[in-house]
């Protein structure tokens, strides 16, 4: 394939300093391929990086870390293989693939326990400070992107690149549901109905949740939830969150609550809305201090977190999307060319006032 010398890329240099510029097209190294990016989603974590917060470190390590000086944002990526690095002959130029956006070290205690998502030394496409000896940390806000050959997965022809950008979030949703140990017939409440929340709810339905409710402060995502077959979609403020959950569960409390918002109020109110033996899983976290009482955990109630996803969750996500059991197209509200990154990102920064759920960039 004819590959140009330079490409457009959205590079984050630091706090609120995101620039669309022309940079050299990277060469794939050994055991890598070069992807011609077909589409890349703007994730909520990208917004946090823009504001100087390292979402990966907070969710995985439990503390903030500086981000790299020159990082191409974007980890929700799908595209076409355009060049093979050495030892990558199992793939062919022209193959359509989705990208699993991180690779762990393989030798730390967590990798050896098959928990690569908890590896402190992992490299992550689109963010994180682990990249060394590169001019630009690779990411999907670009026309071309290198990726490890063992972290790409074939896409069915009927799954578009735009839809496939949400495989990353779907893998996160699968892992969060697995962390909750949801069993058939249990009630599931999802706090926050952005892309991740809508994916979590769909996975819960697929795995046999007895009744599912999503909560949000905005009408738009609740209407889309209804389109996706989620019948109980209620508008709330953080003060009446507990009441809505109690009403939904006939005052029993929810068996599983997945909190995709992660503020102090949503965490404490969700914890106090659990049924006995209920599980609260935080997909988003905060550095703010919160106050809980030991009695909030009485009755074997559990609060835990969900960090990213396991490797196996990505091909599982492809299966769910390809089968139609989970849909992503209804909540992709905006699609922009990469050249319009500035306009797209401004919408994402103020999603509440722009009826934004998910924005996708197309180079």
UniProtKB/TrEMBL annotation:
InterPro entries the UniProt entry points to: ADH-like_C, ADH-like_N, ADH_Zn_CS, ER, GroES-like_sf, NAD(P)-bd_dom_sf, Zn_alcohol_dh
**Does the record bear Oxidoreductase in its keywords?**
yes
What cofactors are annotated for this protein?
Answer: Zn(2+)
The record places domain Enoyl reductase (ER) at: 14-361
Q: Which GO terms describe its molecular function?
A: L-iditol 2-dehydrogenase (NAD+) activity; zinc ion binding
Enzyme Commission numbers on file: 1.1.1.14
What keywords were assigned to this record?
Metal-binding, Oxidoreductase, Zinc
Pfam families linked to this entry: ADH_N, ADH_zinc_N
Under Gene3D superfamilies, the record lists: Medium-chain alcohol dehydrogenases, catalytic domain, NAD(P)-binding Rossmann-like Domain
Question: TM spans, by residue?
Answer: none
> Electron transport among the record's keywords?
no
Report the sequence similarity comment from the record.
Belongs to the zinc-containing alcohol dehydrogenase family.
- Protein's name according to its UniProt entry: Sorbitol dehydrogenase
User: To which species is this protein native?
Assistant: Candidatus Atribacter allofermentans
Q: Source gene?
A: gutB_1
